[in-house]
Amino acid sequence: MRLSHVDDSGKARMVDVSAKDDTVRIAVARGSVSMRPETMLLITENRNKKGDVLQTARIAGIMATRRVPDLIPLCHTIMISGATVDFVLDEKASIVNIEAEVRAAGKTGVEMEALQAVSTAALTIYDMCKAVEKTMTIENIRLVSKTGGKSGDVQIED
Asked: How far apart are CA 43 and CA 129, in angstroms?
């Protein structure tokens, strides 16, 4: 198998996507943050001293989609047409589940942008709650689906 980011002599390169057709691209990623019940209660009751944890994490995740080429070498700058970051709270298990969906119409996919959104949202939750708990764990960040492009639609079992 040949890696697309490496030329024939083994040197890193940015893939030339100029000949590709523009298609609608959608990627969905998920992850979670596990914590103690007391920390979850601070989030659900919006009593964290730093402010609204989930709204701050949502904004951070959306903003992160635009920073991917600055953080991950050889990623293309993509004109993102839409991004959402949503949370499902499992209060019984003290887990914040995170899902990001990123959309664009272009020559390359938005998988890294969706993964970056989830990662940054999770890190923001950790940062905003670390004063009350340093034992939180960020877990299972993964791509769950992507559409568009030459490789077509991919649905990963979740």
From this structure: 9
Alpha-carbon distance 75 to 72, whole Å? 6
Question: Side chain identity at 98, as an amino acid letter?
Answer: I
Active-site residue identified among 8, 21, 22, 127: 127
Two tokens, residue 129 = 């709650």
Question: Is the sign of the CA dihedral 133, 137, 89, 93 positive or negative?
Answer: negative
Q: In the structure encoding, which two tokens stand for residue 80, read together? A: 């993102």
The residues pairing with 146 across neighbouring beta strands, listed in sequence order, are 27, 154
**Active site (annotated) includes residue 127:** yes
From residue 93, give the alpha-carbon distance in Å to each of 20, 39, 48. 45, 12, 19
pTM for this entry: 0.91
The full DSSP string for 83-140 is EEEEEEEETTTTEEEEEEEEEEEESS--HHHHHHHHHHHHHHHHHHHTTT-S--EEEE
pLDDT tens profile 38-84:
999 999 999 999 999 999 999 999 999 999 999 998 888 999 999 99
